[in-house]
Structure formats: C-alpha cells, structure tokens
Amino acid sequence: MKKSKLEEKKEQGQHKHEGFVTRIFGFFNQYDKIIYGVTIGLLILVCGLLALNKFYLIPQSEKASSLMSAPIDFMLKADSLSLVKALEGDDENEGFLNIASSFAFTSTANTAKYFAGMCYLKLDDKEEALHYLLKFKHKDEIYWYAAQGIISDLYDDQGDLAKAIKYCKKAAESKDPYFAPVNLFKLGQLYEREENWRKASIAYQTIKDKFYAEYQKMNIDKFLERALINQNK
C-alpha cells in the first residue's frame, strides 16, 4: 500500500531527528575528554574568581578603606605640608599615592587617585593633577563628573580647546541641578571661543529648558540671544 504524503513527511522528520540525535551523541563520544576538560576548567575558573573575591579583593578593599581617613584629614588641612603628607603619607600613615598603587584592584584605590589629583591641584602641580585625574575611572558619579570638569579646565589652561570641550561635555552630563548648568555654561563659552555658535546656543538652551532656577540666576538669555544671532549670520 502506497504511503500518503503526510506519512512520508512524518517518516522523513523522524529520520532527520534520529540523524541529528545520532550526530550529537557521536560528537560527544568523539570529543568527550575535551568537553569534560573544558567544563572542569570553567568550574575551576569560576571557583577561583569567587575565592579571589572573598579572600583577597574584599579584605584588600576593607584594608584600603581603613587607611583613607588619615590622608583625607591631611588634605582637609589644605596647607602645603599637610597636602604632601596626604599624598606621600608619614611614618604612621599611608598616603593617597601608596593606597592607589598598593590596592590597585579596589574602588578605594580609584578614589585615592581622585584625591591625589586634587592634592596636586592645590599644590599647583597641574601636570600631576591631570595625570591622576585622567586615571580616575567612572565608578563614583559625584567625584567623576567633578573630575571631568577639572580636567577640562586643565586642558583649557594648556590651550587645548578640543580636549577642554571633550571633557566639559562629560562634566555637563551630570544630573546635579547646580553642577550640570555650571558646566553647560562653561561648555557654551568654550564653543563660543571655537565660534561654534550653534552648539553654544544648544548648551545655553539646555540650561533654560532643564535647569530653570539656575537659568534665572545666570542670566542665560543674553548669552543665548548672542549665540543665536551669530548662528544666523
């Protein structure tokens, strides 16, 4: 008896399924040692990372945090000798520089880089200030946006307008109702110096649209009007 097309399709599907399963089992039989080796290797890696975090990174982070209070106290005194102690430490305390290098994989070390940059800035060593602020990674939003604004100022001092704008744009991305409009205004001023009146007007308009209280205090309308007039020339 001739099989119907439906029966033939079912048989073909069964054969394909059986063929696929057979190939899978054949693959595992052929490469079982490699597969088991890779699986065991991944398990060892995961366990190693968990152990590293528990027995090394967490204790390191806790120790680094406990060392930060002394250099912060020195930094807050703000005189030159105290700022040097904040950076380099003394006979009893570690400084920001050593904390940043000795506990490199911790978030505390990252914060120490920011504080080191601020100490150098107060000591008027702008080159070292820029060096450490550029190494400060985006983990703490409050400090990070502040760092981008300072980096912008330092590049501006060097006459590098392009980099000053680049980092000012990052600082202006903050949602802080005071900090953001201040940096947006600085960004507008930088664009004016570049004679990019369109982008300057966008910066001023953003202050007007999103930060109304600061917009009123900063008398933004006259800057916005000037930018729009020059844009349309």
Task: Describe this structure as you would to a colleague.
By secondary structure, the protein is mainly α. Among the domains are: about 90 residues; about 70 residues. The protein contains twelve helices and no strands. The termini are far apart. About 30% of the residues are buried.
Summarize the SSE layout with pairings:
Elements: H1 5-67, H2 69-77, H3 80-88, H4 96-102, H5 107-122, H6 126-135, H7 141-157, H8 161-171, H9 179-193, H10 197-210, H11 212-218, H12 220-231
What descriptive keywords fit this protein?
233 residues; 12 helices
Question: Summarize this, please?
Answer:
The protein is mostly helical and 233 residues long.
- Element-by-element helix/strand order: HHHHHHHHHHHH
Largest sheet: none
CA distance, first residue to last residue: 90 Å
- Name the beta content range: under 5%
The beta-strand count equals 0
Shape: flat
Q: Could you tell me the radius of gyration in angstroms? A: 30 Å
Catalogue the unreliable spans: 47-53
Structural class per helix/strand content? mainly alpha
Mean pLDDT: 83
Helical fraction equals over 70%
